[in-house]
Amino acid sequence: MPNLVVDFDKLLTLAGTDLGFTEYREITQEQINKFADATGDDQWIHVDPERAKDGPFGAPIAHGFLTLSLIIPFWGELFDVEGVTTKVNYGLDKVRFTSPVKVGARIRMQATIAEVTEVKGGAQIKVSSTIEIEGQERPAVVAEFLARFYK
After folding, report:
1. Which residues contact 86 (CB under 8 A, 6 or more apart)?
2. Strands 86-97 and 141-150
3. DSSP bridge pairs for 15
4. N or C: which end of the chain has fewer CB within 10 A?
5. pLDDT digits (tens, 9 = 90+) for 108-134
6. 8 Å CB contact between 88 and 75
């Protein structure tokens, strides 16, 4: 169950709401390999653990876009809107991959609803999110993403 579930009618009042943190998820080599297969990005820093040991990060790292894609399941832990017919991911305004995520690392997301605006038939929210790596000061990803909810 998400941390916060609201009715659509309350959505427009939520700008500035801190949604807190998700649970941690471990990044596995299997996830990385599947992502590489799905995207065709099979660079050795991701999929060759032996070679990656001697590479710039000392271990295989997750693709930045793999880490970014985890916003979706993380988002489901934090927030939901009831009383709508459709929910869509509308896009991204800003994304930065600020630190590599090594195999075995645990990550979680913190999110804040930065803006809420009315759109035809519904509302759009801009979410400021940070994907953190357990035990590291520098985050893995900083992103602003947009979601729309239609009545």
Report:
1. 122, 148, 149, 150
2. antiparallel
3. none
4. N
5. 999 999 999 999 999 999 999 999 999
6. no
Q: Which structure tokens are listed for 111? A: 């999110």
Q: Distance between CA 73 and CA 69 in Å, rounded?
A: 8
**Cβ neighbour number for residue 16 with a 10 Å cutoff:** 10
User: Tens of pLDDT along 26-54?
Assistant: 999 999 999 999 999 999 999 999 999 99
Provide the 10 A C-beta neighbour count for residue 119.
Answer: 11
Identity at 67, one-letter amino acid code: T
DSSP string, the chain: --SEEEEHHHHTT-TT-EEEE---EE--HHHHHHHHHHHT---HHHH-HHHHHTSTTSS-B--HHHHHHTHHHHHHHHEEEES-SEEEEEEEEEEEE-S--BTT-EEEEEEEEEEEEEETTEEEEEEEEEEEETT-SS-SEEEEEEEEEE-
pTM (two decimals): 0.92
Q: Kindly report the number of other CB atoms within 10 A of residue 114's CB atom.
A: 15
